[in-house]
Amino acid sequence: MAPAPTTTTATSSLSLLSPAELSYLHTSLSLSPPIRPDSRKPTQFRPLTAELDILPSTHGSSRVIWPDGGECIVGVKAEVEKSLPDATTTKRVEVSVEVAGARDDDPLAVFLSSSVNDILGQKLAGRLEIGERWHWKLYIDILLLTPPISHPSTLLSLGVHLALRVTNLPRLISAADEDPLFSDDWDAALPLYPAASAAVGDVPAITLLVAAVGENVFFDPTREEMAVADCVLAVSVDYDGRKVVKRIVRECGPVGREVFESLESIVKAG
Amino acid sequence: MSRYEILSPEGLRVDGRRWNEIRRFHAQLSTQPAAADGSSYVEQGNTKVVCTVTGPAEASMRSKQLHDKTSVTVEVTFAAFSGTERKRRGKNDKRVQEMRTMLQRTFASAILTHLHPRSEITISLHILSQDGGVLATCVNAITLALIDAGVPMTDYVVGMTAGITTSTSSEDKTEGEPLLDVNGIEDSDLPTLTVATLGATENISLLQLENKVHMTLVESMLAAAIDGCAKMKEMLDEVVRKHGEEVARSGAL
């Protein structure tokens, strides 16, 4: 849980606000009750568009479009792999993020792919077993089509969550100790997250961006709100509201008690 | 040849089309207005391509600045999930380089480059799904994106593929039937020809032949593909006009 590498691309390159504007925003967000520039409630999200199953060559896919124009396409593909007897289950899921127009080793892309991998964690690996000697290897490929204006963590994690929810894996028709053989009938494929697991909340975790200003906490901050916030956190939560991972996206100003108070509000609100 | 019958005796292909029928075509203009000057999304059957165009703008590198013309830069990315097998392709993949150069040359001649010297037009393609005829779909996507960006061109540059199936009844390699708009199965089995023409004319601006084919068969493939380009041009034009009407109706003009 080390702090993330400075995501200067996302945050600092766009704070073209004058000191007067920054101060105005900060004051308006510190009020009680706070006033957000677009008059949303602190826990209100901006509307987004999502499409599912758009790619026929994948096991599951999704496309999420963010109101500021950011667009993210996620494709999930699976391959069968032999399980090594003493290997750990960590490499069952491989996540790759491609940011349009950026290099392959762009720090933002690396940070995003490792953060997505972290939040999916062991719970997903547990679903990929095929008997004792074989398992599925899942490749989650994320294409960020438009360069992120605000930090893309939330966009990505929602896209991955949706793509995994609609992922289907071919149905096994061989016996447990034979080499795996699958049904050719795609209609017989089983979902990776069957309906039953949604009912008990066993679904992939998502990442939410949370900004704290004074004693107020805001979800889905715009880039102006992130520019004036005292602290912005990318918090990954699973269905029960338990925090899986926290990464500090941008931090300035006094950390101390204010952060802990903000976190308490997050736990109560989230 | 393969397990499937590329062309059945009744004249039907694997997906039920006849030899001169093109796949389902769907295109949208201005899909990413916030991120680029022009953008488009084209689907030909299951081949899906997203294209964005930025420019004319200041050249990103001094070396790219031409004193009397606009320089055109093309970037192509194949998404890892686009093919049947998951495969990450780096920027130095040979096929990717080949596509980039071909598209760059084609559009550098179609765009009126003398109008914006010392500037650069950047074209980015993302291939989301490959199912045959990828290069042709890219050509069409770029054309639409350039139109959306308002880049002046001499005419639509329209792409189409044609394959040739040598009938299995005779061993004669000089007899064959052309198939228009090949899908993924046909693309991997048959020799294919990708042609890009300027509008509905017969002026060819891009030509690529995959696999070996007897010389006498090339003419029929070429004729079929050029005909297909003319059909495709009508469809592209319809998409552009419809988009224009919507923009006018929404009061932007």
Give the overall shape of chain A, derived from the CA principal axes: elongated
Extended strand count of chain A: 12
Taking all Cα atoms into account, the compactness measure Rg of chain A is 20 Å
Distance between the termini of chain B: 55 Å
Strand content of chain A: 25-35%
What do the pLDDT scores of chain B average to?
A: 91
Provide the residue-averaged pLDDT of chain A.
Answer: 77
Secondary structure: number of strands of chain B: 9
Main β sheet profile of chain B: 5 strands, mixed
Overall 3D geometry of chain B?
Answer: globular
Task: Report the structural category of chain A.
Answer: alpha+beta
Low-pLDDT residue intervals, each spanning 5 or more residues of chain A:
1-14, 251-257
Would you list the SSEs of chain B in sequence order as H and E?
EEEEHEHEEHEEH
Largest sheet of chain A: 6 strands, mixed
**Beta-strand percentage range of chain B:** 25-35%
In order across it, which strands form the biggest sheet of chain B? 1-2-3-5-4
Structural class of chain B: alpha+beta
Helical coverage of chain A, percent range: 25-40%
By DSSP (H or I, 4+ residues per run), the number of helices of chain A equals 6
What would you call the quaternary organization? heterodimer
Compact summary:
The complex is a heterodimer of chains A (about 270) and B (about 250). With about 270 residues, chain A is an alpha+beta fold. Helices cover about 25% and strands about 25% of the residues of chain A.
Please, could you describe this protein's structure?
The complex is a heterodimer of chains A (270) and B (253). Chain A has 6 helices and 12 strands. By secondary structure, chain A is an alpha+beta fold. The N terminus of chain A is likely disordered. In chain A, strands 1, 2, 3, 4, 5 and 6 form a 6-stranded mixed beta sheet that branches. By secondary structure, chain B is of the alpha+beta class. In chain B, the strands form 2 sheets. In chain B, strands 1-2-3-5-4 form a 5-stranded mixed beta sheet. In chain B, strands 7-6-8-9 form a 4-stranded antiparallel beta sheet, with helices on both faces. Chain B is globular. Classes of the chains: A alpha+beta (270), B alpha+beta (253). Chains A and B meet through β3 and β6 of A and β3 and β5 of B.
